[in-house]
Amino acid sequence: MQQEASGRVILLLDNTEGNEKTMLTTANEDPSAMHSLASLRTYAKMRTIAVMLCFATAVAGTNPAESEEQKSSISAAVFDFEFNNLNQEVDYGADNTVERSRLPTLSRLLKKMLKASGRVEVVDTRPAADRVNSVKFFHDCQGCDADIAKGLGADLAITAVVVKVSNMEGSMRVYVRNSKTGQLIAAYPVEYRGNSEYEWSRAVSWLVRNRLLHPDYTFLPTK
Question: Would the pTM count as exceeding 0.85?
Answer without folding.
Answer: no
